[in-house]
Structures are given as structure tokens and as C-alpha cells.
Amino acid sequence: MSSRIVVLISGSGTNLQAIIDACDASDYPGKVVGVVSNKADAYGLTRAKNADIETITLSHKSFESRKSYDQALMSDIDTLSPDVIVLAGFMRILTPEFVKHYQGKLVNIHPSLLPKYQGLNTHQRAIDAGDTVHGVSVHFVTAELDGGPVILQAKVPVFETDTSDDLAARVHEQEHRIYPLVVKWLCEKRLHMKTEGDNEFAVLDGKILSISGYAND
């Protein structure tokens, strides 16, 4: 039986498309059953509709607080009975209550080699710092922004002539490769999040992953 995947978006949905495409393979262990957006004009909703996937639009502008929005968001997501929840360009900071509700099955992709460059404008920050290597991280979501345990990273070179757009394009290519793979691991129940005291770890096939995730070399 396929795992049920729900994807949260705010924009164009290229990572969503990569996951939808991966799910088309006969041996992929999951299926996208719903796409939720906080923006009605997000092109990712069109991608979902083209693939006959249920869509939900829930504008944060209709709510008085982040907490009330997240409560409504949880209610909508729960109607889809998800096994895996994927943040794919969902431009909202989530409340601790939301994160706790889905702890261990909620993942995000961030365009840097975490823990470097948490937050926004990661490509320009890497260029400004003179980095020669940049990349992308998939991680479990915890209450700390971009701070959950890393599952998998992909590295890309930074060239002297790069603009932030050049670097972003190189990173996006890797995003579309590694995100469907991590989602696959979750669907197969090979991947888990483990908590020991104040520390959290990503665990794949029973082994705790390093701070940089799987295959960080």
C-alpha cells in the first residue's frame, strides 16, 4: 500500500513536480494525495490539478494569528490522512504546535549546506562569503527554523563569475534529485527521527546519520 504524501507550497512548485514525477514510477512507494497552498495564485496548484491531485488553498491573510492559521492548516491536512508531509517552498514559519503534531513525518528542503546560511538569500550569502562550495539540505522539521536534523545534502561548485541566479539554478537541479529520494525513504519507513534528551537525530536503516546527513562526502 502506497504511503500518502501531502505537499505544502507557496509558489511555482518545481520540487512538487519532481515528487509527482517520481511517484509515476511503478515501484515508487508513495503517492501525492493532496497539495496545500497559502497562495491562490501559486503555480504549483496548477501542477497538482494537471496530475489530478486534490488541492486546498488556505490564505494566511484570513486569520488573526499564526496559531489560528496553523490550527486550520492542521485540520485541512488531517482530512487527507497523510503519512508524509513535505514542505516544498512553503513560505511560512510554522508554530511549535504544528511541528509537534507532525514530528517525524514532516520534512523541508533548504538551499544551503546546513547549518550554514539558515533563513533567506542563501545563494547571495554564499557568494558574498567567498564560498567555493554551496548546496542544498533536506532535513526533518523541528521548532528551530532550519534547525532540524539533516537527512541528505547535495553539493555544487561556486564559480567566481556566478550570480545568485546562476547558483540557484545549479542548486535547483540537485533539489529535484534528492528530495524525491528522501521522500521515498520516508514512504518505505526506512527513515525516522530519533530524540534523545534535547538532541534530535535522523536515522536511516537503523543508523544515526551524521550532522551533514547521509553520504555527506
Give a quick summary of the entry:
The chain is of the alpha/beta class and 217 residues long. The chain is 31% helix and 27% strand. The strands form two sheets. A seven-stranded mixed beta sheet has the order 3-2-1-4-5-6-7, with helices on one face. The protein has a three-stranded antiparallel beta sheet with strand order 8-9-10.
Question: How would you describe this protein?
Answer:
The protein is α/β, with parallel strands linked by helices and 217 residues long. The protein has one domain (3-208): Rossmann fold, CATH 3.40.50. 31% of the residues lie in helices and 27% in strands. It has 6 helices and 10 strands, in the order E-H-E-H-E-H-E-H-E-H-E-E-H-E-E-E. It has helices at residues 14-23, 43-50, 66-78, 96-101, 122-128, 164-187; strands spanning 3-9, 30-37, 54-57, 84-87, 106-110, 133-140, 150-157, 191-196, 199-204, 207-208. The chain has a 7-stranded mixed sheet, covered by helices on one side. Helix 1 (14-23) runs parallel beside helix 6. It is globular, with a radius of gyration of 17 Å.
Can you tag this structure with a few keywords?
three-stranded antiparallel beta sheet, 6 helices, 217 residues, seven-stranded mixed beta sheet, 27% strand, alpha/beta, Rossmann fold
